[in-house]
Amino acid sequence: MSTDDTTPSPAEAAEMLRAATATRTSVGRRAAAPAWYYPALGLLLAAMMAAAATHDDRLLTPAALLAAVGSGALVAVHRARAGLWVASGVRGGRARRLESGILAGLVVLGGVPALLDAAAGQRWPWLVAAVVTVPFCAVMGRAWEKAYREDLESGR
Questions:
Q1: Phi then psi for 141, rounded to 5 degrees?
Q2: How many CB atoms lie within 10 A of CB 8?
Q3: Diameter of the chain measured on Cα atoms
Q4: pTM
Q5: Running DSSP on this structure, what letter comes out for residue 7?
Q6: What is the pLDDT of residues 101-121, one digit of tens each?
Q7: How many angstroms separate the CA atoms of 86 and 82, rounded?
Q8: Cys staple from 152: which of 28, 68, 108, 143, with CB 3.0 to 4.6 Å?
Q9: For the segment 38-59, what is each residue's pLDDT rounded down to a tens digit?
Q10: Half-sphere exposure (CA, 13 Å, Cβ side) for 94?
Q11: SS3 track for 128-145
């Protein structure tokens, strides 16, 4: 330390910054979900959408419960594996913007079929949405993780 023992020397400050960067990088890596996480989430949502196309509560209710319980299980497994959970929306940067885009995409994927079903009795959009949801979740989940790591490592 410098002479007044409260201000680090330039070398100490540089080392502290390197340590902080290494910690942010480590957290970003630990936060990464397993490869199957986002496709599994997409499958849970897709099952619920496909069940909605049937208009049969005997299928839709269990599918909705499966999606809710399955999503909770995915979170629990990921949390236990990583030792942390990333709260969404707490950071600025590209990851935050992607969160908004992902949410908008999911609203469209669920909302358009619901509107077409209610207004015109068209059930097929549910099936299209179900098929699109799996790759949407897989691709956008990985894109969000990449953006989150980059934001974290750059200090955003």
A1: -60, -45
A2: 13
A3: 78
A4: 0.82
A5: S
A6: 999 999 999 999 999 999 999
A7: 10
A8: 28
A9: 999 999 999 999 999 999 999 9
A10: 14
A11: HHHHHHHHHHHHHHHHHH
